[in-house]
Amino acid sequence: MTMKEILFAVTSFTRCQTCCDVGHLFTVLSSLLLCFIVTSCGQDSLEETSPEPSPSPCIDSTRLCLDTGLPVCYVTTRNNISISSRDEYVTATMHIVHNGKSLFEDTLLRIKGRGQASWTSMFPKRPYKLKLSSRYELLGMPANKHFVLLANYTDKSLMRTAIGFKVGELLEREWTPQSRFVELVLNGKYQGNYQLTESVRAGKHRINVSNSGLILEYLYPERVVEEPFYFITKNFQLGYGFKYPDEDDMTEECVKYAADLMDRFERQLTDSNCVTGYTDFIDLESWAKWYYHLNILMQREYNTYLVKYDNTDNSKICLGPLWDFEWSLGVGYYDGKERPCQDHYLVTEKYFRKLIESPLFIAEVTKIHRQYGKRVREGVLRYYEELSDYLRISQKLNFKCWPILDKRISVGGYPLGSWEKEVECDRQFFIDHYDYIDMLINCNTRVVRTYYSTRRHC
Fold this sequence. Notes:
- By secondary structure, the protein is of the alpha+beta class.
- The chain has helices at residues 3-15, 22-33, 55-61, 117-120, 160-170, 221-224, 252-270, 284-296, 352-355, 359-390, 392-401, 419-442, and strands at 40-41, 44-45, 72-77, 90-98, 101-104, 108-113, 128-138, 141-150, 179-186, 189-198, 214-219, 230-232, 239-244, 305-308, 318-319.
- It contains 12 helices and 15 strands.
- The protein has a 7-stranded mixed barrel.
- Helix 5 (160-170) crosses helix 10.
- The radius of gyration is 24 Å and the shape is globular.
- The two termini are 36 Å apart.
């Protein structure tokens, strides 16, 4: 921040005060001089560098500097220690400010790293898990102790997760996480545009399972064996850990019950003499919505959660919510000099290779498209417009901090060079792929893994 900008900020600040004496103005000016700390991002500097002051005055002084239209989330760890583990929490305080107003006062919380590839890949912009000391409403989201800060580092549009959640809302899924975009300042250093998000957990305002319910998470073989409680199915050889019950409440009987339930479902699904028997185990609408949600976004990497709301026979296995959208909208399916939008195909992994052979399942997917499809298409395109305006200033600061728009990061093909081009490419891809699915269904074509070419390119 230059001296000219500081003086302009002082002028702007004093104009909006009802009274401001010379002493108060001097205090404000002194605080604004500390705003140089905001130009420090991770280990690199946005502009000039200066000695790092103590964290408390930095938190107070930077509130006038990050005026991007987004709330600013200030997190300060005890003794400014770094967050270097997904397993060990660090004690911290947090303060959220928006438009000059304090929305959430400092409180004792714990913070640690989170994610699988997003953490182990050692990307410099890192995601975090928050555990508050009490249940709090954050930025209008229902009260809870557990939230996450998504970095969206490999997503150069910054929007894919928000778009994915929006599709879940438009489809009226059982539960879709709420989220809010924020600017993150960690230990006095600006970290970029983040997404403060509800985590996937059991709870009244999240996945509202009963005491006898289950939330299972599919995990890769090398990852599932690290879980304190897990099982691997006999037929499909899929590994599942437990999101609920919590580890302290888990029993071997619960593991046996869940493993037996999934084995019986898989046997019914693979029984060549059984066309509809699998519906005794799963909520067909939930699975069809999940499949439609996944394919509308052409999502390559995704977390799979299975939910059984109680242990009665009336409670069937639901699928969802979808999570992890950074590799959606075709990202990860291509590796070329340009980012093509012409190759469109549908995901048929895990159980869906069998389900798409079922006329009953295809009929349910078709019904969902005809009931929700137009609403999803129009709602997503409106949301792109809203987010493009909302994030326009924030993205500039984020990519000044993390200059990756002309670099290849993880998957994603050839970089497009600007945030605007990345957003437009995603938006056009959504239109093309939606129109392809609409064509398949309206032509009464079997929804199978297939390829379709258009003449559009990003």
